[in-house]
């Protein structure tokens, strides 16, 4: 979603706040569980609750001083970091949520800390409402996105200087990414997708109304912008090999609120949780859900199976106004037109341009 709702949050976050902006802040977990682990190492694992699931937080740079030597261990895809140690040795480790690639505001230092005995595994779990969970959700998405873009496209694809405003509301302007305190990792990735698309010059600007319904017809440019952002959010947070990718707009675990991506439903549940409504999904290229589904099925292994880099080449620097232009560019780049037509027909139910 794109709107200058960030203005107030950005202004507040940039005001001098004395010690509040610079003091370290320990992120206190809601649950700490220590169990027996592998001999000769101490393990720490960090999880964040989202709906009914517990998501790992990768890439946390834990540091510790063991035997007088400073050691760094990065959390892996399961959220676990490992330290070699001697039997009976106590290990204290700390990870600061700071990066040269992006900033999380407000700008106080967020630290995850753990202490454990050698031969144990300690799991720190942060509930969805924990203030530290919002920053950890940003960390999970931003570090994963940076690594994926570096691998698939190169370092220049990352929007240098990206700043995430936690509790700023889900809206993005340029490289200033606003995320709400209770936003899912999918939403964080969606908002980051807008910053990536701006940085790469993918889509013609001019769509600036965040107050729209994802089921509505919002114009070809708007649907491409929002559809790309949702595709990017799912690509980062779930991965293109995910068999059942979803849009997860809120923290509730209801099936009706976790919408499928590969196929677009005819109608979805919207509105407040306490008084839901059913809305039909607009058919055509000016609906963001359909654009997202098409883009996903272009790169999915069980779809067109075009490389992500090919989709990037079709979009980067193009200032595209519609997904039709993207489909035509994909064809010029050598993507199988028969497979493209199949993905197009499934998503839009309108005549295919290729």
Give an overview in words:
This protein is an alpha+beta fold and 354 residues long. The protein folds into 2 domains: 21-126, Immunoglobulin-like (Sandwich); 209-354, Neutral Protease, domain 2 (Orthogonal Bundle), CATH 1.10.390. The protein contains 8 helices and 18 strands. The protein has helices spanning 6-14, 131-152, 185-200, 220-237, 288-299, 308-315, 323-332, 337-348, and strands at residues 25-26, 31-36, 41-50, 53-56, 61-66, 69-74, 80-84, 90-96, 102-105, 110-117, 120-126, 162-166, 172-173, 176-179, 246-248, 258-260, 267-270, 277-280. It has a 5-stranded mixed sheet, with no helix packed on it. The radius of gyration is 21 Å and the shape is elongated.
Fold blueprint:
Layout: H1 6-14, E1 25-26, E2 31-36, E3 41-50, E4 53-56, E5 61-66, E6 69-74, E7 80-84, E8 90-96, E9 102-105, E10 110-117, E11 120-126, H2 131-152, E12 162-166, E13 172-173, E14 176-179, H3 185-200, H4 220-237, E15 246-248, E16 258-260, E17 267-270, E18 277-280, H5 288-299, H6 308-315, H7 323-332, H8 337-348
Parallel strand pairs: 1-10, 3-11, 9-12, 12-14
Antiparallel strand pairs: 2-11, 3-4, 3-7, 5-6, 5-8, 8-10, 13-14, 15-16, 17-18
Helix pairs in contact: 2-3, 3-4, 4-5, 5-8, 6-7
